[in-house]
Amino acid sequence: MTVVETPIRVVQGNHRSTAGVHLVARDYPKGLRLDPHMHREAQLVYAAKGTMQVTTPKGRWLVPPDRAVWVPAHLEHAIDVLADIEMRTLYFDLPWLKREQRYEGLTKEFVVRVSPLLHQAIIALFDSRNTSERTGLLVRLVMLELHQAEDSATFVPLPHEPRCRRAAMIVLDDPTGLHDIDTLAREVGTSARTLSRLFSAETQLSFKSWCQRARVAAAIRRSNSSRPSSVMPACPPSRPRSVR
């Protein structure tokens, strides 16, 4: 699968490092959406500035600059830009990950805690003056700093069971509404008791707690979306291009 996108400004051209890592730097404006797509490489999705929402089959993450998301190869995901972002994305070749014995622990998506050291290492990777030796050391440092963060408030798990999934999407379409589980259960063709059990089993949260999580995430999203855009096109719009 590919996604067609029109970057507002290409900050630095795509290039491959000697360490088997693709580096892509782009700026995107608030309101842009990268529809569901996947890559043949594993990916560290990071915005040095701004806030985005990353959606995978597992759930939705709000991702400020002190967080990133690890996305395994061939995993479908979508990105919504909530505030102007400066994207600094790393794509890792699978043969390199396996050769470095990093593949086994990185087969599922997770949110990454971006320490000051990790932030600086990622930014330094995009320095055009880097030598192959320096790039290789920076890539290894990035891998050592991939620590999972416990971001319960900014993560909304998505259930997979069809009835529960439909109920979740109804709530997410109107997260500030008052959603009665009895009414919601009738809408998706099940009982309130069954729907309550499904939410607990599928999301590890009660229905009430899940709705509260959705409201908090929506409030954070609205707060970011209400900020004025500061990114302006540097050149006339170009033809859409396909990326990996």
Helix-strand layout with pairing:
Blueprint: E1 3-5, E2 9-16, E3 21-28, E4 33-37, E5 42-45, E6 47-49, E7 52-56, E8 59-63, E9 67-71, E10 77-81, E11 85-92, H1 94-99, E12 110-113, H2 116-125, H3 132-144, E13 147-148, E14 155-157, H4 162-173, H5 181-188, H6 192-203, H7 207-225, E15 241-243
Antiparallel strand pairs: 1-15, 2-3, 3-11, 4-10, 5-9, 5-11, 6-11, 7-8, 7-10, 8-14, 9-12, 12-13
Would you tell me the overall average pLDDT? 82
Give the domain tally: 2
Helix content bin: 25-40%
How would you sum up the global shape? elongated
Give the SSE order as H and E letters: EEEEEEEEEEEHEHHEEHHHHE
N-to-C CA distance: 8 Å
Q: CATH topology of the largest domain, what is it called? A: Jelly Rolls
Number of strands: 15
Q: List unreliable stretches of 5+ residues.
A: 1-16, 229-244
Proportion of residues in β-strands: 25-35%
Strand count, sense and barrel status of the largest sheet are:
8 strands, antiparallel
CATH architectural designation of the largest domain: Sandwich
Overview features:
244 residues; alpha+beta; Jelly Rolls; Arc Repressor Mutant, subunit A; 2 domains; 8-stranded antiparallel beta sheet; 5-stranded antiparallel beta sheet; 7 helices; 15 strands; elongated; disordered N terminus; disordered C terminus
